[in-house]
Amino acid sequence: MNGLSVRTKLTAWYGGLFLLAGLVLVVINYLLVQSALPDPDRAATMAIRSADAVYGIQGNTIIGSPGATAQLLTGSLDEYRSSTLSTLVVGSAIALVATAGLAVLFGWLMAGRALRPLHDITSAARRLEAGKLDRRINLDGPPDELKELADTFDGMLDRLAESFDSQKRFVANASHELRTPLAVQRTLIEVALAGPEVPPEMRKLGTHLLHTNERSERMIEGLLVLARSDRGLQSRVPVRLDEVVATVVRATSAQAASAGVKVETRLRPRTVPGDPVLLERLVTNLVVNAITYNASGGWVYVEVRGDPALEVRNSGPVVPPEAVPTLFEPFRRVGSERTGDSRNAGLGLSIVRSVAQAHGGYAEAQPGRRGGLVVTVRFPPA
């Protein structure tokens, strides 16, 4: 943390103001005591006059001269006055230092108590994520400024959570509603192309429409999965991640062989509490992306271990480092426009990141040393 904390600054202010007030009090006390003590010269003169009057009435003579007597009395009173003021200053300084230390200590404790609600607000804000807006501060206490701030923050979180839920429901409902017309459209095109008398131009157009329809269906399916994972997990079951990877690799072996890509695995037992369907989709997206964005004769290496839980490396074209963060954004690809690549819908890594976050983990990527990409997924310990 740069600079002094607010608690330290408040403590310094408390201690400094108390020390200043104590110094003013000591000076005032010193002046009052100094004015209350008798003046040595005046007190000696008055004492000699009183003694002359007493001895004059009794008819006696004073032994010694009046000047020597006055000097002796003045010295004694001056010593008493100096000793009293010195004792006052030393005692006041010691008391001031001790009380200032106690003031700093109590100031530190009181500042911490006063700032505790702010720490609760800061902690709640740090734990917030787009998919986890269920945390609230619920500050107890008198209706002061801090209570008002905490309640305002809770109200803002309620509105944000409602807005995010509404957005996710809209995406899920819209994606679900779009699946039916796309399926009907695909069926109509296939029926139209099944006839023996279809002209070549019409067959070419129908084939292109089928590819476009297939891409739209993949995009809608990806949006549904993305909306589901963004909502969070309703329940968790133990999932063997290594077994999921083995199943996905077997299912994509034909695609890898067709692309001329060799897939190798190194699987250690690893259990992840979560949703088996979403975890399988995460692994599928990573393996399919590694096969699709590769070169003939390339390779894909999939490893399951402790930390990271999953790592997928592949050969392929060189990926610029500055382009890696954008790969986790929806509809973003390297080296192509938003609609320039019909192999995938551009949601693969977005779904990977969303599923990982729904399971309390995260996904990250970095360029391979000789091209391709290295994607790692980390999950909390089982």
Summarize the structure.
The chain is of the alpha+beta class. The protein has 9 helices and 7 strands, in the order αααααβααββαββαββ.
List keywords for this structure.
two-stranded antiparallel sheet, alpha+beta, five-stranded mixed β-sheet, ATP-binding, ATP binding, 382 residues, 9 helices, transferase
SSE blueprint:
Blueprint: H1 6-36, H2 40-58, H3 66-126, H4 145-193, H5 200-230, E1 237-240, H6 241-251, H7 253-259, E2 262-267, E3 271-274, H8 276-292, E4 299-304, E5 310-314, H9 348-358, E6 362-367, E7 373-378
Parallel strand pairs: 2-4
Antiparallel strand pairs: 1-3, 4-5, 5-7, 6-7
The level 1 CATH classification of the largest domain is Alpha Beta
Give the helix level as a range of percent. Answer: 55-70%
Radius of gyration: 43 Å
Unreliable spans are: 56-63, 336-342
- Say what oligomer this is: single chain
Structural class: alpha+beta
Subcellular location: Cell membrane
Organism: Amycolatopsis melonis
Main location: membrane
Pfam family, one: HAMP
